[in-house]
Amino acid sequence: MDIDLSQFTQVFFEESLEGLEVMESELLKLTVPQPDPETINTIFRAAHSIKGGSATFGFNQVAGFTHLLETLLDEIRDGRREMTANHQDMLLLSVDLLRNMLQALMAGQSFESPQQQELENRFNQELSEVAGVEEAPDNASQSNEKSAAKVSETKDSETKEIGLSWQIDFHAGADILRCGNDPILMFNELAELGELKVSLPAQELPEFEDLDPESCRLYWQLQLDTEAPLERIKEVFEWVEDDCEIHYQQLPAKTQLVEGVSPQEQAPISTCAPVSQEPQVAATTAKVESGKAVAKTAETSSIRVSTDKIDMLINMVGELVITQAMLGQIGQQEHIDDNAQLSLQQGLEQLANHTRDLQESVMQIRMLPISFAFNRFPRLVRDIGQQLGKKVELILKGEETELDKTVMEKIVDPMVHLVRNALDHGIESPAVRSAKGKPETGRITLNAFHQGGNIVIEITDDGAGLDIGRILAKARDKGLVGAEEELSTEAIQQLIFKPGFSTADSVSDLSGRGVGMDVVRRNIQALSGSVELASTPGKGSRFTIRLPLTLAILDGQLVRVGEHTYVVPLVSIYESLQVESSKVNKLSEEHEVIRLRDEYLPVIRVYQEFNHLAQAKEVKEGLVMVVDNNNQKVGLLVDELLAQQQVVIKSLEDNYAKVPGVSGATILGDGRVALIVDIPGLVTMSGLNQTQEHAA
Asked: Does the predicted model carry a pTM greater than 0.90?
């Protein structure tokens, strides 16, 4: 029976990528030359699962390369080879290569890389060398037992053993075919180990009308003559051992008669008892697909959700069905009396409560611990630290803090750039740190925690901090700051976020191109977040990123501009007030500022930027909403403040096109569409940024 395995490939890709993450994490924990045996076993199991799955789906390039990793790991875990730093580097590079292979397969592309051939050569050279692990005297008894199992030797002649013979009873699980596992592929792999005979013993089968073509009812009896050890044979079935019943029995060994020795003098190997495989308990997690179809692209992803969250959703839906049935009965009545009206009001209240609970439960499904993002940084810090010759310790805090999956995926790149900057510009070399009286090993800390309705991510280092004098000199050379202009320490620090700004003397793989910190800030702002910087010379720097917990729901302030309703993110609002005309100063025909306590704030007339007819055309006639724009206060002139409410964000780019000054849209309770204001975009539209830069 032919089975279409393509429906299972996406699951294989996701589980393989998870396996690579496990391998990378465990490899970074290794202590050379005496690694923890369980750590090696974990790495081996992950590699073997990837190999078995790739072979099942016909991804021979992945399977062949992973076999080299598996062989090396097998020798290390069996004590036949000592773990070295070179092995650790080779395996980490292999993780990167396998990840690229899988991503190419997911995109339906061929994969070619000179690094693959280079790594294969390194593995083959390493494996061809005799392992330098000597057997301890305690192993002598084991060697004697193996020797006793061999054919007896005589003075005049000898008998040569040509391998072992195994009987394998393979009882396939009923769902083996549904899971995409083909016994023929396993038998083909067994045949590569030696001479294989396959038989199908007589067995009871259901009547024809009761047969399920997707359910396997067969078992096979295999005889394999091989020189491979039992552990290698078991590896063939390791992919399905939890779903099938497998028994191994060693048969008398085949021997080759050598001249001068009679058959009676040849001693066979004694048989051993059958070895059974005990099933393991599967983890109680469910996988929820966020994609639409099974023929999926590399961008499609899924998240693992605990069954508790799924059960909660089911209960919520059940409550909604009950409430809907109650409201349906009321709607069928011809006359609505006072009792029915009271029941209707109660039902609507229940419906509102259930809907809110369901919304919160659904949002919880998308929430993942930020450890999914943090886990990639130990490798990054290790590799860049070695490249720069620096000793660096990475400390992770708040790894269980949960964040929306979409936000997490988009914040990783800015975080990577900030950590690379800390390694390149912040942490000093061991010699410099020692001269300053610091420990030779620098420290970078990633910390995440909830604060109000936001998540806060701090990236801290104990390096040199920002060189204020150097930053100011570079800014003056580039014309960003006037020759005689004096700036505060905070204002100088903010210069690193200017486009094209860099203090690096030369361009390297890590820095110096002047493209970085401005992109970091822009990407964070695109997530409706902000980034703050605090630095102390000689002691280090701290970047603080504030983000909304989710991009799907927004707490907003509704405002009216003419006949139009807009939503301003509540987290960006400082205050709203009416301004007296005496506190308004005009800078030009297009720009004016207001004096608020000890500050002068620029004002943007929203109706002008969006081309509306407004009721309040002057500042004194309307309301000024003071909002945050990159840690700077800006006033927005609007006609009226309306209600505050939580809104569901709809993407304009997906449904229409990108609109300047607008980050999305939502549908109000009365069915009208309200646009969500993008404050940084609105400031750019107004030309305020250019005015400020020109003034500087």
From this structure: no
